[in-house]
UniProtKB/TrEMBL annotation:
UniProt keyword Ribonucleoprotein present: no
Claim: DNA-binding is one of the keywords in the record: yes
Domain HTH gntR-type: 14-82
Family annotation (PROSITE patterns): HTH_GNTR
Family named by the database record: In the C-terminal section; belongs to the class-I pyridoxal-phosphate-dependent aminotransferase family.
Domain of life of the source: Bacteria
Known cofactor(s): pyridoxal 5'-phosphate
Protein name, per record: PLP-dependent aminotransferase family protein
Length: 468
């Protein structure tokens, strides 16, 4: 389904069905999709884009109504010949992903605090790395990433996350979405993937884009339902065990053991452990990595510096078991690292001088305080609302006990100048239960957090308990 790679912005006020409709219409009018081409079924496209079948049905219905596609009974949908309309549509969707109503307060779960980044320390590291003796950094380096950075990552992982590996097992890349396709290739065409539901939609899209449809496995208060995984045909399980995205749950100890047992029961079974924000835990001891607990070498550990430092750095890494490392070397013998060497050496020095650890320690305290302020601002509105996922990470889940659709509540919030993120946008299939939303606190200051909750509750007509 590579022809139908639709880019969705689930925080955008334009409905998802209209985003799909507009982008498909432009692809048709620009002849990117040939006349007569059969479209994916509503079920397949809904799974591919991690949206409901109703959303796809609305988009297809509009395209049929306008004559861009036709519905053939018991066969499917096909692209129509609309040559005479092509010149009228070229620029219509250029602004689909451009926010038309910017929110004064954005509870994005993907933002970090930009005010506390140690610019002076980073500037010094940059100056030390970029000097007249750094000409060797202008040449291509190790395709797995420069050894200086991999050494630092290996030491950091062992002491902070319990990951046991050598620097040779580490592959550095520019984002997890760039590393996952490499994993897909070395695991082969026979691999069947299981993903958390709800889960991280970009990862699901990567699997589908590479023609690896993923089986959604339910997530509850204990994390991924491993019993459901065992009943499935999956051979590879993609999980976020330390802080499940988006629910914030932690994979329970019994399920960790069951998941590792599942992996060790078959040599083809692999766990992809995405530890995207494992550095930030606020209650109890740090959760050990599955990789460190694994004895059968069945876990691929995946992480990034996006949350711990900055999203724009675009440096991620994976730790491959020895058997898969050998396979990786054979498959990517001509591969060149996608991360600039200067950036790698700046980060390596930043870590070697202890600046990374100091920055993390500082940000843990800052985010813990922000989390406390956020939850304290929510408590007076209980039990009309409830929150969860407050043990780790940089967002929580707020459940609203109202008989209103999530989309309607999100729109009401946006009209009040507040952007929240619907949990159902991260789910495959029909959402059930009370409306729930992700509230990120990393990119907001303390005043914005308190003011944002007050304005949000007012917009949703939820009063404090003492006022009811």
């Amino acid at each position: 389904m590579e022809e139908w790679l639709v880019l969705l912005d689930k925080s955008h006020p334009i409905p998802l069905y209209e985003q799909i409709y507009r982008q498909m219409k432009q692809d048709i009018t620009n002849h990117r999709i040939p006349v007569g081409k059969k479209l994916p079924s509503k079920r397949k496209l809904s799974e591919f884009l991690s949206v409901s079948q109703t959303t796809i049905e609305l988009a297809y219905g509009q395209l049929v109504a306008e004559g861009y596609i036709t519905a053939v009974p018991r066969s499917g949908y096909y692209v129509q010949d609309i040559e005479e309309l092509a010149y009228t549509e070229a620029a219509e969707v250029n602004d689909v992903l451009t926010p038309v109503r910017p929110a004064a307060i954005d509870f994005s779960p993907g933002m970090v605090d930009p005010e506390l980044f140690p610019f002076s320390k980073w500037r010094k590291v940059a100056k030390d790395v970029i000097d007249e003796h750094a000409s060797h950094l202008l040449q291509l380096g190790d395709p797995h990433g420069d050894v200086e950075l991999r050494n630092e990552i290996a030491m950091y992982l062992y002491h902070s996350r319990g990951v046991i590996c050598t620097p040779e097992q580490i592959i550095v890349g520019s984002g997890t979405e760039q590393l996952i396709p490499l994993i897909i290739r070395i695991l082969g065409e026979e691999a069947v993937y299981a993903v958390e539901n709800p889960g991280y939609p970009l990862t699901h899209h990567v699997f589908d884009h590479h023609l690896r449809p993923a089986i959604p496995i339910p997530v509850d208060g204990g994390g991924m339902d491993v019993d459901a995984l065992q009943r499935s045909l999956a051979t590879v399980a993609y999980v976020t065990p330390s802080h499940q995205f988006p629910t914030g749950t932690v994979l329970s100890a019994p399920r960790r053991a069951a998941l590792l047992n599942w992996a060790s029961s078959n040599q083809e079974h692999i766990i992809i452990e995405d530890d995207y924000d494992g550095e930030f835990r606020y209650a109890g001891r740090p959760i050990p990595s599955l990789q460190g607990m694994d004895r059968g070498e069945n876990v691929i550990y995946l992480s990034t510096f996006s949350k711990s430092l900055m999203p724009s750095l675009r440096i991620a890494y994976m730790v491959l078991p020895p058997a898969l490392l050998k396979r990786y070397k054979g498959a990517f013998i001509q591969y060149a690292s996608t991360v600039p060497r200067i950036d790698q050496h700046m980060l390596a020095r930043f870590m070697a001088e202890g600046q990374f650890s100091r920055h993390l320690n500082r940000m843990r305290k800052v985010y813990r305080k922000k989390l406390q302020m956020l939850t304290e601002a929510l408590i007076p509105y209980e039990p009309a609302i409830a929150y969860s996922g407050d043990e780790a990470g940089m967002h929580i889940i707020v459940t609203v006990h109202k008989q209103q659709p999530e989309s309607e509540l999100a729109e009401i919030a946006l009209q009040a100048g507040i952007r929240v993120y619907s949990l159902q946008d991260y789910q495959s299939g029909h959402a059930t239960g009370s409306p729930s939303f992700l509230l990120g606190f990393g990119g907001l200051n303390e005043h914005q957090l308190v003011q944002g909750i007050e304005k949000l509750m007012k917009a949703w007509n939820i009063q404090k308990a003492e006022q009811r």
